[in-house]
Specification:
Troponin I is the inhibitory subunit of troponin, the thin filament regulatory complex which confers calcium-sensitivity to striated muscle actomyosin ATPase activity. By secondary structure, the protein is mainly α. It has six helices and no strands. Among the domains are: 49 residues; 56 residues.
Length: 180
């Protein structure tokens, strides 16, 4: 009994899905037809059929009119592009403000790139970068200097030999005299 209900529900879901797809297809076809009709109407209104005159003078006049029309359309297109750019920039600013207000920041997708220091400088500075950068070349050379304690340890050698010498007050006196 339960399995029959499941089958019926699945069949109904599939039927609804196919019906929705058929509706969507018809709507898309209607939209395409409406756009085509709108395009034809616009062209009929703004682009009257071209009639070529017979004389050279009339042809020159027609060319001048067409040139003026092209210039005006080009200006309109430029103005529309500028308006579009301005609105897109405004939209980006507003969406950034919205993110800031919500406290959610959109992180750009970062990729790990293995790059040497030279390649990085070349990428940042372009052709200006000519110096080859060897990171180890500028490091300070450190020579190990012998400290006082190490010298004493080397001079003393084996501690058992000097133990009698340094024991008692005489040994302490010798250490103080040696220190001075």
């Amino acid at each position: 009994h339960l399995q029959k209900k499941r089958r019926a529900a699945t069949a109904r879901r599939q039927h609804l899905k196919s019906a929705m797809l058929q509706l969507a297809v018809t709507e898309i076809e209607k939209e395409a037809a409406a756009k085509e009709v709108e395009k034809q109407n616009y062209l009929a209104e703004h682009c009257p059929p071209l009639s070529l005159p017979g004389s050279m003078q009339e042809l020159q006049e027609l060319c001048k009119k067409l040139h003026a029309k092209i210039e005006s359309v080009d200006e309109e297109r430029y103005d529309t592009e500028v308006k579009l750019q301005k609105t897109t920039k405004e939209l980006e600013d507003l969406s950034q403000k919205l993110f800031d207000l919500r406290g959610k920041f959109k992180r750009p997708p970062l990729r790990r790139v293995r790059m040497s220091a030279d390649a990085m400088l070349r990428a940042l500075l372009g052709s200006k970068h000519k110096v080859c950068m060897d990171l180890r070349a500028n490091l300070k050379q450190v020579k190990k200097e012998d400290t006082e304690k190490e010298k004493d340890l080397r001079d003393v050698g084996d501690w058992r030999k000097n133990i009698e010498e340094k024991s008692g007050m005489e040994g302490r006196k010798k250490m103080f005299e040696a220190g001075e």
